[in-house]
Every structure is written in C-alpha cells, then in structure tokens.
Write a structure and sequence with these properties.
single chain, 566 residues, alpha/beta, Gyrase A, domain 2
C-alpha cells in the first residue's frame, strides 16, 4: 500500500511544525487552578497571533495584539497590518526563491514589529502552489489520486523542480469522499521555512492562500447559501476559485494569451463550464455563480455581481492600526490571524476551571505533610519499576544466551548429519569406482601379438565400445589360422573367440589366407578366476617363444590400428 502524503506542507518536506502552546501562558486541568494558554510576551503583558501571506509579489503581514487585563481596564485587541513588495527583477518574481530576497524583506518586517520568537501561520500564493479537488466514490478518488501523484512532476506551469504534496479528506457519505490535494514547489516551501527560522520566527502552519480565502468567506457568511467565485491577481496572473461553505471546490488558472483582456471577460468565457462543474460537485446547491469576490472592483460591467473581499466584517471587534489598501494577500494574512483567534476563544470560553484560579502562594509545608504518603508510594513504585527493569534486562540476556546455545546445538547436529551423508556418499562412490570395468589395453594387445604362430602376421586390432575386439591378419596357410584361433581361445584376457571369415589370395609365389577373428574382453571376475592359469600359461608361452626366437619377428611384422565406435 502506497504511503499517503502528509496533511501539512512542512511535514511534506520533513520538518516539524512549531509548538504554539508554551509554558508562558496560564495552565488548566492540572489540579492547581492553573490553565494552559498560548505563548505571549510577559514583559509587554500582551500576546500576539501572527499571519503571513507570501507570494512572488511580496509579503503581507497581519498580527493581533491583545493586552492582558490586570483587573483595572478591559483588554483591547489591536490588528496591525503591513506589506512589503518584492522588486520586479527579484528572485521570487523569476522563480528563484533562494537569492536572499525573501529572507531580507522578512527580516525587515520582523525587526520593525519586534516579532522574533513568535509562532507564525503562513500561506503561499501565486503560481508556486496549487490545490486540486477530487470527489466521487472511494475507488474513483483513489485512482485519481494515483494518477495525480504520477503527473505531479509535470506541472510545468508551477516551475521546474521537485514538487511536494499534501492532502485532506472529507467524507461526503458512506461511499463517497472529497479530497483536497495541495501541490507546491519543494524549493519554495524550504525557502520559506529557512527564512522564518533565520529571522527568529517559529513556523506553525503552511497552507495555500486560496484555501485560506475560502475560509475567510465562510467566516463572514458569504458562501453559506450558494457557491461563489473568488479571483486573485498576482503579478498579472489570474487565479480563479470556487468556494462553498468554507471549502475550495475548484482552483483554476485560466490561460491569458492577451494580458489586456479584463478579468470579467475571462470569467464570462469560462462561466458556463464552471456552472456545469459546480452542478456536478454539489447538485443540491445553486450553480448560478452570480457573486465574484475580488480585491478591488473594476469599472467593467459583468454578468456576475463583483464584490470586494469582506475586509470590514473580517476585522470586526479588532482595532485596525494601518491604512493599507486590503488586497487578497492582506485578506489572507488577516484570515490566518482571525482563524487562530476564534480557535483560542473557542477553547477558552465557558471554562469553569478558570474560576479556580488563585494568585496566592501554595502552602508547601502543608502540601508536603499531606502528600508524603503519596510521594513515598511513588518512590517505592519507581524503585520496584527499576528493579523490574533490571531483572527483565538480565532475563533477556540469559534468554539470548540460551538461544545462542540452542543455535550452536542445531548447527552441530546439522554438521553431524552433513558429515554422515558425505561419508555414505564417499563409500558409494568408492564402491561404484571398484565395480567399473577398466579394460587392460596394454596386456590385451601384448597377448594378441604374443600368440601369433610362425608365418602369421596382423593387419589391425579393432576395439569397439561394446567391449568387443576384431583381429584382422594374414597367414601363409589355413593351419596357421586355426593354430592362432586356438591360442586366442586359451588367452585369459579374451572370451567368446570366434572366426568370423577367411579368404584366400594368391600372391607372387604363394597363396595367402586373410582372416578375421572376433572376441570380447574378459570381465574382472573372469580374470580373477583364471589369474593363476594366466600366469602359468604366459610363462610357458614366453619360454617357448624365446627358445625359438620368433617373438620379435612376429611383433615387427604386424601393424596396429585402434578404432572406436564412439
């Protein structure tokens, strides 16, 4: 099973999110009347929530500053806005986020507002980040996710380089689901993380600007009843989105071949397709798409109702300390701050533990007197746990040693079985080698030539693979042939000696008889039975030949030819 992408872009690049809850806030739920809270500056008696929107155009900053009430005056929330634009020829505008521009301008903002050490919630805008929405049956969405993962690296419009993904799943019903997949450039995410870390900020979250703006519209109640369009313009590039109940339904980047075309005309060209898409995604909701939210209203007349982002509603109950013109990046930064403020208020409201807060010092003497049995029991428990841990470790060591000894015993048994099988195999090979018949070629040839009578010589001796021998020779008379046949039959090295054929040929002065004699080589058992007879016979024959001086002459007259059937 393939691993699912993480739900946060920081996790997608292998980094941890900053911890927002810290020791500096009051605690809750610990039994001593203290309550957990968010990090704030004790010296200024304020706590801050910081939001950043970073895009190729620049950085938008928004943070809320709330004075901690000391009982003499009511606390008042103050919203501070600021924005820094990147130069037109800067690295982020050209797709190079590692040229130092981001770090320089972010450091300027941090120093200007004294935000070092604060946890920051960040959004990425522009072409470096896109969100795809998939919906349908579980199997269909899973197949779409597999295809999307395969073609992620081919998102050339985002730029060249490695991409990272993060996804979020929402169930529609038991069989259907909707998945938001955010794809971003890895070098952009890593550059933002490095820049915030180098300027002293703690990056707590990183998400897509379009998703944040959808949440802003839902916070102000603008997309509760019907889907609405929202338009973001970043460096002349138009990003078109559809929001419904705080969820992004579509993130679309229409191609602008002519930059002089107005946004309204672009929307009109795609409005029919967008309505069909909304009808397929949320059939129960109206699909007119009559409302379009933009950063500023142009004078172009469109069929859709163009409205600015709800800046006033978003800043309700906040004192805005800035005269900036709110664009989409500033709205996104404020939306990040507003989301965290509402989450904090939701956690802190209706908390009865807050009524147990006490500013008096704890009576440590009485506390120790009343709790020493618990402390003693805890100490004994820890001692027993340590002893148990030590005994467990020792038992584990002994178990490992026993396992090692058992492995050695198994290895020795296996070695003994292997050795026994090798010995049996060697015995079988030796027995087989002893049973194999090895013809005694030299002795056989010597015996065949040694038995030649006078006036008989050989033409060839043929040995065949079936253990047979064919002797071809010439004699001056028939008596010589029969005498030679008799001597071969008495040879212990040959069996089944038989005369195959004879033929007479007239020579110059006499008649020659050509003969062929067949025989078989004797087996070892037969040789053993006649070994003694062979020795006596060979001795007698040799004495006879030496006395008549015929052996050398006979051997000098024949020629030997060995043939093989193989």
């Amino acid at each position: 099973m393939a691993l699912r992408p993480p739900k946060d872009l920081l996790t997608a690049i292998g980094q941890d999110r900053a911890i927002v809850e810290r020791r500096s806030g009051p605690r809750s739920g610990d039994g001593f009347g203290m309550r957990h809270g968010r990090r704030f500056d004790r010296r200024k008696r304020t706590k801050r929530t910081v939001g950043l929107e970073i895009s190729p155009a620049g950085i938008a900053l928004a943070y809320s500053e709330k004075a901690i009430s000391d009982g003499t005056a009511e606390s008042q929330d103050r919203l501070v806005l600021d924005r820094v634009s990147f130069p037109a020829d800067s690295g982020p505008a050209r797709g190079d986020w590692n040229d130092g521009t981001l770090q320089t301008h972010l450091s300027e903002l941090v120093q200007r507002h004294g935000l070092a050490g604060q946890a920051v919630y960040c959004a990425i805008g522009g072409h470096a980040c896109v969100t795809r929405v998939l919906s349908g049956t579980d199997q269909h969405v899973d197949n779409e996710l597999t295809e999307l993962a395969a073609r992620t690296e081919r998102y050339i419009g985002m730029g060249l380089g490695e991409k990272v993904r993060t996804e979020y799943t929402q169930r529609i019903d038991a069989k259907r689901k909707r998945v938001w997949v955010t794809v971003a450039m890895r070098d952009v995410v890593e550059a933002i993380s490095a820049a915030t870390r180098s300027t002293g900020l703690r990056l707590a979250n990183l998400e897509h600007t379009m998703v944040v703006l959808c949440r802003v519209l839902h916070t102000c109640g603008r997309d509760d009843n019907e889907p609405v369009l929202l338009v973001i313009d970043d460096l002349g590039r138009m990003d078109l989105g559809i929001s419904y109940k705080g969820r992004l339904l579509l993130d679309y980047r229409p191609a602008l071949l002519d930059k002089s075309i107005e946004q309204g005309e672009v929307i009109q060209r795609h409005l029919k397709c967008l309505r069909r898409y909304v009808q397929s995604q949320v059939p129960e909701a109206p699909s007119d798409l009559q409302t379009v939210y933009v950063a500023s209203i142009s004078e172009t007349n469109d069929a859709a109702d163009r409205s600015p982002f709800p800046f006033d509603d978003l800043c309700e109950k906040l004192s805005v300390d800035s005269d900036l013109t709110p664009d989409s990046s500033v709205i996104a930064a404020i939306g990040l701050v507003r989301s965290q403020i509402e989450a904090s208020n939701a956690n802190e409201s209706n908390n009865l533990v807050a009524t147990l807060r006490s500013d008096h010092k704890l009576p440590w003497a009485k506390l120790l007197t009343s709790t020493w049995p618990i402390i003693a029991a805890a100490v004994v428990t820890f001692a027993l746990l340590a002893l148990d841990l030590r005994l467990s470790s020792r038992i584990e060591q002994i178990s490992l040693q026993i396992d090692s000894y058992l492995d050695e015993v198994d290895a020795s048994e296996e070695l003994r079985a292997t050795l026994t099988s090798r010995i049996e195999y060697a015995n079988e090979v030796r027995q087989l080698s002893e049973s194999v018949h090895k013809p005694r070629w030299a002795e056989t040839i010597w015996a065949i030539g040694n038995d030649l009578p006078n006036r008989v010589w050989l033409e060839s001796i043929q040995f065949h693979t079936d253990n047979s021998v064919m002797v071809v020779g010439i004699s001056r008379s028939d008596d010589g042939v029969f005498e030679y046949l008799r001597r071969l039959r008495s040879c212990p090295l040959l069996t089944r000696v038989a005369l195959q054929s004879t033929s007479a040929h007239r020579g110059i002065s006499t008649t020659e008889v050509r003969f062929e004699v067949s025989a078989e080589l004797a087996k070892p058992t037969e040789l053993q039975n006649i070994a003694k007879a062979k020795t006596d016979r060979s001795t007698e024959t040799l004495d006879h030949r030496l006395s008549h001086n015929v052996v050398p002459a006979a051997l000098n007259e024949f020629s030997f030819e060995a043939e093989s059937d193989g």
